[in-house]
Write a structure and sequence with these properties.
Oligomer: single chain
Radius of gyration: 15 Å
Order of helices and strands: EHEHEHEHEH
CATH topology: Alpha/beta knot
Strand content: 15-25%
Largest sheet: 5 strands, parallel
Number of domains: 1
Number of strands: 5
Amino acid sequence: MRMLLIAAGKRQPDWINDGYHEYARRLRGPCILELVEIPLGRRSRSEAGDKARAAEGQRMLRAIPPGAHVVALAVDGRAWSSAELASRLASWMAIGAPVCLLVGGPDGLSPQVLQRADERWSLSPLTLPHGLVRPVVAEALYRAWSLAQGHPYHRE
């Protein structure tokens, strides 16, 4: 299964990139995770973030392959345990289409992106910096994949 983490923002600190790549590289074989970075929209003091969020949303929508299953990372989404995420991975694999996980910029995801999503996933009720979501998602997917494969990485 091909998963695309489509994330707003191109410049992240090394520790963010290192954390993401550490877990993304562990996902091999039938389950791979690729990062697609979308440039942030222009923000200014005189304009609200809505215009920038809309521009990011259009770029994200263009990055989604045809027929993909889309999961928006949103605070109002459903929180999944590692076991529940492992079950979601199994259902995504059964779909047989790419899975796109969408991470918004500082102002979140545009309404058009949220409308396109097939489901919404909440990592936490906390507001997380958008860059931090990358390694958190990669680790969560790796943990869920390991659990589904019966590997000892996951401990309850």
